[in-house]
Amino acid sequence: MAGGLLILAVSSVLVGGDDPYHNQGPLASLAKDLRKPQPAALQWQDHALRVSSSILIVADWLSTIDGLRQGFPESNPLLGEHPSVGRANIMIATGLLANAFLVPKIKDPELRRGIWLMMVLIEFHAVHNNRSLGLGFNFRL
Fold first, then answer.
1. Residue boundaries of the structural domains of the chain
2. What residues have CB less than 8 Å from 57, skipping those under 6 apart?
3. Helix, strand, coil distribution of the chain in percent, nearest 5
4. What is the pLDDT of residues 54-107, one digit of tens each?
């Protein structure tokens, strides 16, 4: 039996040589056309909008916490009229992380910049209103 296997192995090498498709399966010769998605290339405008919107979100966060501790009602309908400080921290931190890490993954530069520009305008308005009510930046989150 071992002699027969030896003869089969030697004859396959002498007759055909190495089989380039051995143990590769029927799909081995297909070209791979799927590529890993690449992150969007950010320009200086993207970085400026990303940083400014993130800074304004943090400023709004700190003044919102000051307002909640003083008993002011919250105007954000997602948070409710009188949310707990913990709930506000979680919701605002989630928004900040999405602004800083998810929005840059949008490939369309006009959409990405439009989202950041809207965040700058919304957050600037919120910080201006909070400061006009006499709220400060409370670093005790």
1. 44-132
2. 92, 95, 96, 99, 119, 123
3. 60, 0, 40
4. 999 999 999 999 999 999 998 888 888 999 999 999 999 999 999 999 999 999
